[in-house]
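Thread title: Can someone regenerate the structure for this chain?

I was given the following input by a collaborator and told the matching structure tokens would be attached. They weren't. Posting the sequence so someone can regenerate them.
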Amino acid sequence: MTRADKKINEMMNRFLPLGKFSFGLGDRFAHQAKAQLRACMMAAQCGVEVVPVWNKSNREHIIIGSEPGTVRAAANAATTELGWKNEYHVDADHIRLETVDKFIPSSDFFTIDVADSIGKPAEIKDVKKFVDRHPELIGKILITKIDRPFEIARDEVERVIGKYHTAVREAGKIYRHIAQAKGEVPFITEVSMDETDNPQKPLELLVILAALADEKVPLQTIAPKFTGRFNKGVDYAGDVKQFEMEFNDDIAVVNFAVRKYALPPSLKLSVHSGSDKFSIYAPIRRALKKFDAGLHIKTAGTTWLEEVIGLAEVGGDGLALAKEIYAGAFEHADELCAPYATVIDIDKSKLPSPTTVNGWSSEQFVSALRHDPHCKDFNPNLRQLLHVGFKIAAKMGDRYLDALNRYEVVIAKNVTENLFERHMKPLLIG
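Best answer:
Regenerated them for you:
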């Protein structure tokens, strides 16, 4: 073994363990860490340990005008003040090689986003080498807890690795860059492939995991694109039964790959844009129980929406500010929606005009925005628009932040209840 190979193997064995259940907690304006942590404490009282992972992407930092270190500072302050002695992490969310460096000092969790590299042509010789190296992927594959054997021909393996090879190589490159910079300090690696057009089938996931193992990436979570739409802040759109079957198969594939390719035993699926996917929470919970599996789920934007709900609830200048944010989002809808085109689906004809919203009471505004599928006034189009509209609040600067401080009690109550009652409880407790 060469010196370079030894160094790579050392990196492969140097990873930070991640607890069984972890929640990605977005906190756009760094004011809700305590409220979010209280939800984790409530889950602990019910016998379920939820690891909080505070995450914020480079895009969100640019929009807000913040730096990665502020996420670590907020997480440390919240855990200290509330006496949290358990595990917690700070995630450099959706980083790439050109954006990762500024996250390295303050993050111990890195979501490596390689979606843009999917489909980029791979060298024919690299494809052939991979398939020659993995004859076990050709033919009949028996995987525990999948009733039917998988059948895969050589040309299908070549097609799959040809599609994902460049993305996997990019993940390896970014991982090694982080590992080199972190030195002896261990960290958690997630590979994200969800922000792309087509879902990865379980067999594709198996090939991807084999390739990531070849790249010596000790990933602990992987975020594939699942069947159906995972639009921001609203329920799952798709065939729930098909999703449940594929999610079960994906867990089985992950377990198989862990044993077959010596990947970290804590490796688990990650569900991105996972907030408010109420219709698939019960199927996910059943699958986790069936396999005794872990889960990482990102619920980032739902906290920002609870801030707006809290402002609307207090009435007066809080409600006025919420209405102003909506008016700004309505006016700049195209600009705000463009970066999120693959994860929102807004029918603009069903968006109320700012004039209409200006006439609403607190109850009307909250009813339209709060995700209650049984409420006749709930408007998923308005909710999605406000989900991507945090840029409007960011431009308000101290005026918005001062309102968060002034109405902290009401806002924090909404944030905690939303995370625990609508997310952690149905997913992990039942």
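The chain has a mean pLDDT of 95.
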